[in-house]
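agent: user wants the full assembly modeled, not chains individually. Plan: 1) parse entity lines 2) check alphabet per entity 3) run joint structure prediction 4) return tokens. Steps 1-2 passed, two entities, 259 residues total. Proceeding.
--- entities ---
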Amino acid sequence: MKIGILVSEGPYTHQASDTAYNFVKAAIEKGHEIYRVFFYHDGVNNATRLTEPPRDDRNIVNRWSELAKQHNLDLVVCIAAAQRRGIMDENEAKRQGKNADNLAEGFRISGLGQLVEAGIQCDRLVTFGD
Amino acid sequence: MTDEMMDEEGVIKKFMFVNRKAPYGTIYALEGLEVVLISAAFEQDVSLAFVDDGVYELKKTQDTKALGQKNFSPTYRALEGYDIEKLYVERESMEMRGLTEDDLLVDVQVVSSAEMADLMAEQDVVISF
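--- prediction returned ---
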């Protein structure tokens, strides 16, 4: 089955991102295709590489980056939601005249159309949020 | 071209956006509306559901001056211009909050929670905010 994922909450405060991660891993192990993981609302905070949790805790951001690398996942961060919350890639930081960027490896920034398109293309769109 | 590819081309799915939160206090209603507007460009069969505190999103005469936030409620009136005309409000949520259809700023279809469940069951994609 072709599955799209929507993550609408940030890391640590909510369990949504953890559950989405476990779901994606399990789905891949069962042979399903993960078409895209889309991060919206505070979910865009899952994409900042400046995250530095205590050593005995999981690193939610790095975990997504590693999974993306292993399975060639398409991790997409909503641009409008990201701009509101200070998540930027190099290009966007330049364009906005910012002196830093923070998008973690394996993520890309794009528009909301990517979420709607995932809904159209996938057999299931599964939301992880509040 | 395989049959599957042909199906993909002109595919129209039933999308329902479920609005559950009050318009202010959290950003879900505003960012949810942004998704609804984008979806109009994809020529899908779009409907909106308003349940729980989400019914407040459609309340007439919203005044956000004291909040220091933008009043985005006029956007719901513009949805018609995007061919988004199926707006369903759950009767139970509305009545529980002392609202009637006259309190709402757009024409809606008021449905029971059982009818709303049937509508949701018909959808291909349900995204809730």
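agent: reporting back. The two ends of chain B are 38 Å apart (CA to CA). The beta strands of chain B are 14-19, 45-50, 86-90, 109-111, 125-128.
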